[in-house]
Specification:
The protein is an alpha/beta fold and 372 residues long. It has two domains: 161 residues, Rossmann fold; 198 residues, Up-down Bundle (Dehydroquinate synthase-like, alpha domain), CATH 1.20.1090. A six-stranded parallel sheet has the order 1-8-5-4-2-3. A two-stranded antiparallel sheet has the order 6-7. The two termini are 39 Å apart. Bound molecules: fe (ii) ion. The site of fe (ii) ion (FE2) has 5 residues, from helix 6.
C-alpha cells in the first residue's frame, strides 16, 4: 500500500503583519523566533504577553537534545496552548516537540519510550527555502550520546498550519539560500526514487526539482542577485519538496550526511550536497533500468544534457550555487569513514529503508571512500 496526504493547512500571506492580525499572537502562546526576525518583521505582531524564545540563546550550531532539555526547564511554569515557530528548519523541528504533552526526557521521547500526545496547536512559519519541515511530521535533533543526528517521525509532530510568507526570505544571505535550496532539491530527488514514492508524491518531487533547477540556471547566467525575484518560487518549491519527502521519505544522502554534519558541523544542505552525486552515481550503476531511468530523462531535458551525464551536469550547475568539497576538506579522516558507515548502518535504518536500491555496509563505505 502507498499513502499520500497533506496534513497542515497551508496559508500564504504577502506580509508578516497580516499573520499577526490573523492569529492575534499573545497570551497563552509560545513563540520560537530569533531576536533579529522579531525586530525586523514581527515587533508589532506579537504581543508582550506571549512567551518569546530566542533559539540562538540556547545553541550556536545545530539543535541538540541538551538544548531541548534546557528550553523545557525554562518554560516549565508557562501555560500555553499554541506553539508558533518562525525560523529555519532547525527552529521548526525543535518547536514541534513543544506541542506535545510531554517533551522530556527528550532521548526517551526519540526512543519512543514516552506516550506521544499532541495537546497544543502548532503553527510553523519557515524563514528559509529548504527544509520543508513546516509540512512534515519529522523532527531531527543531534543526540549527543550517539554523536549523530536522529529523526523522530510521528504524526503527532504535524503542524496545524504551515504559513508561507516570501517576504521573510528577502534578507536571506546567499550561503543560506544555497544550502537550504540544495537541501530542498535533495528532498525532492530522494523522495522521487524512494520505494514509498507514489504518482502523487512524484508530482510534487518533479515540480520542486524543475523549479529549483530552473532558478539555478537563471542564477548561473545572471549572478547571485538574480535569486531575489525568485525567492517566492523557491519557498513554494521547498514546500512542494517537503510534501514529497513527508510522504515518500528521504534516504541514503541524508543518512550518510548526518555523521558529517554532526561531527564536523557542516550545514545540513552542504553536507547533503557532499554526498548527493556519489550516492546517485552508485544507484545508477546498481540498477540503471529502474525508476532512475525516467528520473534521468526528466533531469536531462531540464539540464540540456545526455541522460548518462545528468549527475555531472548537476555538479556543473550547482557549482554556481555552492562549491562541492571532498570529505577530507571538511576534516574527515580515513578512520572516520568506517565510523560513519557504522553509524549509518546501525542508527539510520528509518532513512536507509527508502533507498532506491538497498545499500549494504560495503557499498556505503565505498561511496564514502570515493567521496573522500
Ligand atoms: Fe534535509
Amino acid at each position: 500500500m502507498k499513502q499520500f496526504g497533506i496534513t497542515p493547512k497551508i496559508l500564504e500571506f504577502d506580509h508578516c503583519h497580516e499573520v499577526g492580525e490573523h492569529f492575534q499572537i499573545g497570551k497563552g502562546d509560545l513563540v520560537f523566533i530569533s531576536d533579529r526576525t522579531y525586530l525586523q518583521y514581527f515587533k508589532d505582531s506579537i504581543s508582550d504577553q506571549a512567551l518569546r524564545l530566542n533559539y540562538r540563546s540556547y545553541v550556536s550550531g545545530e539543535p541538540t537534545d541538551v538544548m531541548v532539555e534546557a528550553i523545557a526547564a525554562d518554560i516549565k511554569d508557562y501555560q500555553y496552548s499554541r506553539v508558533f515557530a518562525i525560523g529555519g528548519g532547525t527552529i521548526l523541528d525543535v518547536a514541534k516537540l513543544f506541542a506535545l504533552k510531554q517533551t522530556v526526557p527528550v532521548v526517551a521521547l526519540f526512543n519512543k519510550e514516552l506516550d506521544i500526545i499532541k495537546d497544543k496547536q502548532l503553527i510553523l512559519i519557515p524563514t528559509t527555502c529548504g527544509t520543508g519541515s513546516e509540512v512534515t511530521n519529522i523532527s531531527i535533533l543531534e543526540l549527543t550520546a550517539i554523536q549523530s543526528k536522529f529523526g523522530l517521525a510521528v504524526d503527532q509532530l504535524y503542524a496545524d498550519y504551515a504559513v508561507l510568507i516570501p517576504e521573510l526570505l528577502n534578507e536571506l544571505p546567499m550561503s543560506v539560500f544555497a544550502s537550504s535550496s540544495i537541501d530542498a532539491f535533495i528532498h525532492a530527488i530522494e523522495s522521487y526514487t524512494s520505494p514509498k514514492a507514489s504518482a502523487f508524491s512524484q508530482l510534487y518531487s518533479k515540480k520542486a526539482m524543475e523549479m529549483i533547477l530552473s532558478g539555478y540556471q537563471t542564477i548561473a547566467t545572471a549572478g547571485a542577485d538574480a535569486r531575489k525575484p525568485l525567492l517566492a518560487d523557491f519557498m513554494i518549491a521547498a514546500t512542494f519538496a517537503g510534501i514529497a519527502f513527508g510522504n515518500a521519505g528521504c534516504a541514503a544522502v541524508h543518512a550518510m550526511s548526518y555523521p558529517l554534519g554532526a561531527v564536523y558541523h557542516v550545514p545540513h544542505g552542504e553536507a547533503n550536497y557532499a554526498l548527493l552525486t556519489g550516492v546517485y552515481k552508485s544507484y545508477q550503476a546498481l540498477d540503471p533500468d529502474g525508476p532512475i531511468k525516467e528520473l534521468n530523462r526528466f533531469l536531462a531535458k531540464i539540464l540540456g544534457c545526455q541522460t548518462d551525464a545528468v549527475y555531472q551536469a548537476i555538479e556543473q550547475l550547482f557549482s554556481h550555487i555552492l562549491a562541492k568539497q571532498a570529505l577530507r576538506d571538511y576534516g574527515v579522516s580515513k578512520a572516520d569513514l568506517e565510523t560513519f558507515t557504522e553509524a549509518v548502518m546501525t542508527k539510520q535504518s528509518r532513512l536507509m529503508a527508502n533507498n532506491y536500491v538497498p545499500l549494504n555496509r560495503q557499498q556505503v563505505l565505498e561511496i564514502y571512500t570515493k567521496l573522500y
